[in-house]
Design goal:
- The chain is α/β, with parallel strands linked by helices.
- The chain has four domains: about 150 residues, Methylthiotransferase, N-terminal domain (Rossmann fold, 3-Layer(aba) Sandwich); about 110 residues, Transcription Regulator spoIIAA (2-Layer Sandwich), CATH 3.30.750.210; about 90 residues, Transcription Regulator spoIIAA (2-Layer Sandwich); about 55 residues, Beta Barrel (OB fold (Dihydrolipoamide Acetyltransferase, E2P)).
- The strands form five sheets. Strands 2-1-3-4-5-6 form a six-stranded parallel beta sheet, with helices on both faces.
- The longest helix has 24 residues.
- Bound molecules: iron/sulfur cluster.
Length: about 450
């Protein structure tokens, strides 16, 4: 028996509990509030699916909900503070109506020091549950409806003793043409700044046949943009390697795109790049987080590749897939980062020519190796580096986008943006606006007439 998988008997038991709750949840609403990454968004779709199975109507409006679950993120302090402040919003409502249930989950709830804080300072939070407990949502809801005391469903050494991949629980997808499909969970890399291995446990992969079946059914349902998710998809190990899985997921009939998030540069294989190059359904976008351009800092981060190795990988990607967009993550102000280290980052960014950079100012996370390092960088220095990097990247992104003016791009319509302008995404994941409204989820050709650093504009042809 594979210890990573929840037994079918347990899934059946949760379904039975969910059905038994319908008399209690009839006419009630539930709301899931999400912070953080795509993994959390996908988790929230699964939480909402389980709440629906329990009989709740799902709403986006927490004020009309009787069950509120806040799915938290711990990647930076700012994200944790926002989640706690969101929880604080419900204090008054809970005081007025004790029957409302408030739960907290996600990476922040998985950390013991934050849980202590929640127990102490947020008495109106009724329950917390860990990142490997989503399949037990029906049981958690039952407890919440009946328990007299606050409770938690968390294992502090998660993902080992019990199964942690559950197949067969429902998903309530937020979008009818874009979907997330997790292929693996957890991470074994222990980058020295990151809490993910502590919050989400060791790497474990879904079975190849389960992933492929989910993608096939999404394609048959008309989904057009499918993102395979994992903290480090290149470590996928559920019956084949990731390149093979991606190829298989992108080989069904019909026009659709398959993307993936996120790759670790040390594991991004040549086979994977070959699949992107040859399979027309694989999006031409590679997000490859570099984090720093200095080999010295990369070593301190425990990234296990050098600047030169990263550059070689980026060159291979661009040579094999000339129309690809390469994007990255960079941390400014990692402990001990010198001006020379930062200059190395700037020169690497220039050399690769990224289409976009997600730049972050280093934020020490409790329990990580980096948080205890000497040589923490003053905020003012990190801010200056952040600004210099952003300014340079604006120029690089602008010049890359200028080259697309006059070209025709295949765009998947997102309908109207928040300003009422027709917009969509190219295969490179670039935002494209255009002249006429097209139903969301439709592929169109757009002739690009002008370019900004982070968006293109053109006419539908
Ligand atoms: S690869 Fe590193 S940064 Fe990414 S989730 Fe794993 S430990 Fe965190």
């Amino acid at each position: 028996m594979n210890r990573d998988f929840i037994l079918q008997d347990e899934i059946d038991r949760q379904h039975e509990i969910a059905l038994s709750l319908h008399s209690e949840t009839a006419g009630k609403r539930a709301c899931v509030i999400t912070f953080g990454c795509q993994q959390n968004e996908n988790d929230s779709e699964r939480i909402a699916g389980a709440l629906e199975l329990c009989g709740y109507e799902i709403t986006d409006d927490p004020d009309s909900a009787q069950m509120i679950i806040i799915n938290t993120c711990a990647i930076r302090e700012h994200a944790e503070i926002r989640a706690l402040s969101e929880a604080g919003q419900f204090k008054g409502r809970k005081e007025r109506d004790r029957s409302i249930k408030i739960g907290l989950c996600g990476c922040m709830a998985q950390q013991s020091h934050r849980r202590d804080q929640i127990y102490k300072s947020y008495p109106y939070v009724d329950f917390v549950f860990g990142t490997d407990m989503h399949h037990r949502l029906p049981e958690i809801v039952k407890n919440a409806l009946n328990a007299k005391k606050r409770f938690s469903f968390i294992t502090d050494a998660p993902h080992n003793e019990f199964g942690v991949i559950s197949e067969g629980m429902p998903v309530r997808r937020e979008n009818r043409y874009k979907a997330w499909v997790p292929v693996m969970y957890g991470c074994n890399n222990f980058c020295t700044y990151c809490v993910v291995p502590f919050a989400r446990g060791h790497e474990r992969s879904r079975r190849r046949e389960d992933v492929v079946a989910e993608v096939r059914s999404l394609v048959e349902l008309g989904y057009k943009d499918i993102t395979l998710l994992g903290q480090n998809v290149n470590s996928y190990n559920g019956g084949c390697d990731f390149a093979t899985l991606l190829d298989e997921c992108a080989s069904f009939d019909g026009e659709y795109r398959v993307r993936f998030m996120t790759s670790h540069p040390k594991d991004a294989s040549s086979e994977l790049i070959d699949v992107i190059a040859r399979n027309k359904n694989v999006a031409k976008h590679f997000h490859l987080p570099v984090q720093s351009g200095s080999s010295r800092v990369l070593k301190l981060m425990n990234r296990r590749y050098t600047r030169e190795q990263y550059l070689e990988k980026a060159r291979e990607i661009k040579a094999k897939v000339p129309d690809i967009a390469v994007t990255t993550d960079i941390i400014c102000g990692f402990p001990t980062e010198t001006d020379e280290d930062f200059a190395d980052t700037m020169s690497l960014v220039r050399e690769v020519g990224f289409d976009m950079i997600y730049t972050f100012i280093y934020s020490p996370r409790v329990g990580t190796v980096a948080a205890k390092m000497e040589g923490q960088i003053p905020k003012s220095v990190s801010n200056e580096r952040f600004k210099a990097l952003s300014d340079m990247e604006n120029d690089i992104a602008q010049s890359l986008n200028d080259r697309l003016v006059g070209k025709t791009l295949r765009v998947l319509s997102d309908g109207l943006n928040k300003n009422g302008i027709p917009c969509g995404r190219s295969t490179q994941n670039k935002i494209v606006t255009y002249d006429k409204e097209i139903p969301a989820g439709t592929f169109i050709d757009v002739k690009i007439e002008s370019a900004g650093a982070y968006a293109l504009s053109g006419k539908v042809i």
